[in-house]
Amino acid sequence: MLEQTTDILFALLRSALWGRDEAVKPMTDDVANNVLVEAARQAVLGMAAQTVLDRGLLSQKMSVVATQLVDKIRSRNEEVSLGIAHLSQFMKKRELPFVVVKGQVVAQGYSSPLLRQSGDVDFYCTPAVFPLAVAAFEKILQRPLVPDESEKHVEFVIEGVIYELHSSLSEFAYSGNQAYFNQIIEEDVARGGESVELTYRLPKTGEERTLIVPTLSVTMNALYLFVHIFYHLVTSGVGLRQMADWTMFLHRHQGAIDRQQLETWLQGLGLRKAYTAMGSVLVDVMGLPEEEFPLSLTPQDHRRGQRVLRNILRMGNFGKFARRTKKTGLLHSLETGWISLRQCALFFPLAPKEISCRFPKLTLWFLRRRIGHTEKG
User: Fold this and answer.
1) Stated pTM of the model
2) What is the per-residue pLDDT for 375?
């Protein structure tokens, strides 16, 4: 029988993703609490909590706790899905082309989408449309939207839902990679991409409706989901939720992914080695059948994947639980820079050209914050 917290969590995740009857025995309250805490660190709390409830593995006391957690996650998903419906209506009314990425779009590949922990709503407009969309949101919000440092996305909140509007879907350190990635994304959107059917409820009546949400093509999403995960891995860390998203997307769309095109894009970005190393975790831990992974895996990929997995367990979702300094300020900036440098050094062999370009950028990033902090002081 399984005893370690992480082993139990892996088994619960596989059970949730694939409907498998994994060997997990009834839990004491202490064990259950540890598992749920780790599930929260990895942003897979909804799936883990619902699975232990379905299988009757908890005491009455912990069942109440788990039920409350699941209800909260389901409710938040309903809010975010309604937010996407409002976003879609807003953009279509103004004839502003857009695509929604990650989040609720990927959640539709799960057997129970409402159990996936939702975050913000990420959507993309081409560089030509981006300023028009920003102006439209500034008008209804009645305030200016300040871009991030890269000036490639703005963030805003409407009725409790966080939105990120992007003109570029990832930030590469190597300029050649950035130009190449931006080009293939724009070409993909220009071709029309794909769409996903999303269900949402009207808040007053509870009436259920469906919405067709535009997104990237299947093959581009098979690349983009990885690129997003890789970016966070080498800057702050990732959680099991991101790996679960990637797993279920590849599983649901295995027959539609153009494997040759995907490999061409990865070679162009210098990220093939990273794709297979990180992808081995999907097979070894998440339960994805190896034949459903779009590229062939080697024993070396599986060894590299173990290093990725250890880092995921240590860092938690986006590295939030590996931090010692919680408040913003100089120490927080120092820790952020140190974490990024450490992550880059650890995974340098997976993408040498891309990561080698990150070191001077990280130095410049730190100096800007150090100077800014000094001026404020």
Assistant:
1) 0.93
2) 44
Plot region of 79 (φ>0 → left; ψ -120 to 50 → alpha; else → beta): alpha
Strand partners, 100: 123
Cα distance between residue 315 and residue 321, in whole Å = 6
Is the pLDDT reported for residue 213 higher than 80? yes
CA distances 216 to 106, 155, 187, 261, 349, Å, are 11, 21, 10, 15, 29
pLDDT tens digits, 141-160: 999 999 877 678 999 999 99
Poorest-pLDDT segment among 51-55, 205-209, 346-350? 205-209
Q: What is the pLDDT of residue 349?
A: 96
Q: Is 118 exposed, middle or buried (0-12, 13-18, 19+ CB in 10 A)?
A: buried
- What tokens appear for 266 in the block? 């990865």
| Of 75, 80, 73, residue with least CA distance to 36 | 73
* C-beta neighbour count of 58 within 10 angstroms: 23
Q: Which residues contact 297 (CB under 8 A, 6 or more apart)?
A: 276, 279, 280, 283, 290
End-to-end Cα, the chain, rounded Å: 56
pLDDT score of 3: 59
Q: What is the pLDDT averaged over residues 247-272?
A: 97
Q: What is the 3-state secondary structure (H, E, C) of the chain?
A: CCCCHHHHHHHHHHHHHHCCCCCCCCCCHHHHHHHHHHHHHCCCHHHHHHHHHHCCCCCHHHHHHHHHHHHHHHHHHHHHHHHHHHHHHHHHHCCCCCEEECHHHHHCCCCCHHHCCCCCEEEECCCCCHHHHHHHHHHHHCCCCCCCCCCCEEEEEECCEEEEEECCCCCCCCHHHHHHHHHHHHHHHHHCCEEEEEEEECCCCCCEEEEEEEECCHHHHHHHHHHHHHHHHCCCCCCHHHHHHHHHHHHHCCCCCCHHHHHHHHHHHCCHHHHHHHHHHHHHCCCCCHHHCCCCCCHHHHHHHHHHHHHHHHHCHHHHHHCCCCCCCHHHHHHHHHHHHHHHHHCHHHCHHHHHCHHHHHHHHHHHHHHHHHHHC
Residues 231-255 have pLDDT tens digits of: 999 998 999 999 999 999 999 999 9
**Structure tokens belonging to residue 57:** 């593995």
